[in-house]
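Final paragraph of the annual report: two paired records, presented back to back.
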Amino acid sequence: MHALPHDHTGARIRRLRLERHLTQRDLSNLSQVPYSTLTKTEQGILPASPHLIARVAQALRVEVATVTGQPYAAELRADELDILIAPIREALDVYDLGPDPDIAPRPAQLLDADVEALCVAVRAGEIKRVAGEVPALLVEVTTAAHLDRTTEGWLRLAVVCRTAYDVAWKLGYHDLATIALARMEWAAERGSNAIIGGMYRYMRALTYLRSGQYRTGARLITAGLGILDQAEPGRERDVVTGQLYLGAAVMAGRAQDRGTAEAHLAEADRIAQSTGEAARVHWLSFGPTNVRVHRVSVLAELDEYAAASDAGRELVIPRDWPASRRSHHHAEMARAQMWTGQLDASFASLLQARKAAPQQARYHQTVRETYAGLEAARRQLPDSFLSYGSWLSA
């Protein structure tokens, strides 16, 4: 008995391949994915890794979301999240129309408090709450920025656009996430803030990481570091700089460039020793813990799953670390443990991912791929395992 629907990523790859009249050997050659890996992935025996998905998407000339099946429409409808997307899209679309005559923005202190509250909520995994509240705040902050035309107003708008990006990305609406990023850049330019400009390029680079365009992603990281050089020296600049190096490390890892990945991790670690734990600085969660978490991710991207599992097992995450980051780390650990045959430990990590941030885990592509891999590997499926799959696809 299967808990997840049979239209898994491997099945979608097979369907897309056949639509293009390609054999498995053809697609293997085009994507440079080993033939045996591709065939086992199509059969559902092996889960689809992010690297494989990006390679196949490029070979088939489709979006990564087409391969992964995101956004997960049925689940979004069941959670009544799909109806919250259109208002976010509409709110992002009025950025250049000037102040809305029907809106009287509240004082800056109240706006700042709401902006901060949503930053906290999205990192606590409260995606539905944020998705429901961000459109109205976005419209109000947009009007306030046009009326005041101050640096503070434009940067406040940039932060809210980033929150809209967080929601769209976590729910699988990657086209909307790209629009939110563009609006963030538009506001940051008017605020003339090099820190936000560097952050924007870091977040944009991550979209290229997902699509397998590592060279472009690396160029964006380099551009972001150049912009940060224009910022005032200090902890804030160091934190964002360190985060860019972490993004670059994962980029290099997925490109199978171990030397470059290790060099970026080392530089991030050097910076983290100076900044200490700085989870709340621009909500990037930067610090020694995040460096160690990214080391686990880099090892997994290099297909060194045993080393990734060992590194993660030795890692102690602070209690006050954002739930969204903890959930993502547990998902990465589950993937590494599954690939090393630690099936029970992998499922335990999936449970931890759900416990930390259930709304995020339900729509997390790594969680779903790992569960599918465990389902294929286990001969007997206990009720708790089937219940988890039902929760993912309910």
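The closing record of the year follows.
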Amino acid sequence: MDYYLGIDCGGTFIKAALFDAKGKMFACIRENVPVISEQAGYAERDMTHLWQVCANVIKKTITQSEICPTHIKGVGISAQGKGVFLLDQQNAPLGRAILSSDQRALEIVRQWQQAGIPEKLYPHTRQTLWTGHPVSILRWLKDYEPERYHNIGAILMSHDYLRFCLTGELACEETNISESNLYNMQTQHYDPQLAEMLGLEHITEKLPPIVKANQIAGYVNAEAAKLTGLAQGTPVVGGLFDVVSTALCAGLDDETKLNIVLGTWSVVSGVTDHIDDTQHIPFVYGRYAQKGKFIIHEASPTSAGNLEWFVKEWGNLSYQTINDGVAALPVSESAVLFVPFLYGSNAGLGMKSGFYGIQAHHNKMHLFQAIYEGVLFSMKYHLDRMLQRFPNPQVLRITGGPAKSQVWMQMLADLTGMKIEVPEIEETGCLGAAMMAMEGTRGHTMSMTTKQQCFIPNSQNFAIYQKKYQRYQQFVSALQALL
């Protein structure tokens, strides 16, 4: 039997899982990879350590599965987008990776906005500009660490870097690099003129060739085989932006379906076969893994990472205890509001997180309930905008950690008034990557049958949540006035 290895490099964990041709998972190992934040607004990762952890989870997965490495016919990698993973001119890590949640380039982005640069770029890139984009980070490096900037040999994103570690071959995968603001969505190539608009002349010369998600980009080399337990010569495909990976696993293939990812980021995605120039909202487009299609998404780092931080720092409770405690409270009765902006905001550059409305009779569970609500309220901002582009979705499918919480999912159904479907897939990032590995090496897709868990909205709760959502919006507006 043939097997396919999928690797998922996210904001918190790196995972590896083995699947057969029908998408059945045989083994999965995950390990935490720390985000280094030594200064306010910084979010970095040690590149050498990341590769060591990645190699370790691959080796443990193969060991756990008891599958012969020669039966693993392909490897794919799904990873968070944006940020930069830089190599020097000898292809060694050039400092730490700077992640998409990094905000050091805040003032540079503000200056670009004031100069009208995003409006000039958008017709060509179909991207907005914010602090975690590769171009924002690169411009910061040029201005504040010129020696490091001068020594750049290659610009990669996280899955490109891990693929390089496996194969020794440099490439940039299309679903991810198409959202870099250095890629022209019309020509499907890098565009030096875009770089010039941003004061990054000649930087496109540092970008490796573009590969498709399911295109073989290299083969596991001897050094990587020794570290990972993979067979030398195993094909490694381009891989995927993790938003695309989850959309594939959610079955998005036309405009009748939307996918919500609730992880470190809150992402609402849809798939289309054309760019709609009639829309007044600058929707973010990216190349999809299916030929001739685009993924459109609205996103911000305002999701379950807020809960993880709170539990780590203050909670000391299991997620089951939190779910039970929130479920025991009356629906949205508490006056406590929470804005989930620990890692950034979708309401304005520089906005911060916080609670409002706490009184002496409130307890810890009221705060957790407010976090659950705040994450969904922030997501609803994106959903409401996406419904203008996809006005009649028949399906709203949810993936990510919070999808495991029936309490949270019922809250989402009640807030949106829409039927919610949760695909019963444990590791969408790994599975999507494995799907691309199978396509690239065997020329056909996995023949999967996915069950869905459904949540039906409660009309009475819908009215209650709408009232509190309005209070949330008023609270955010008040905070905007403080910027």
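The longest helix spans residues 364-389. This concludes the annual technical report; the extension proposal builds directly on these records.
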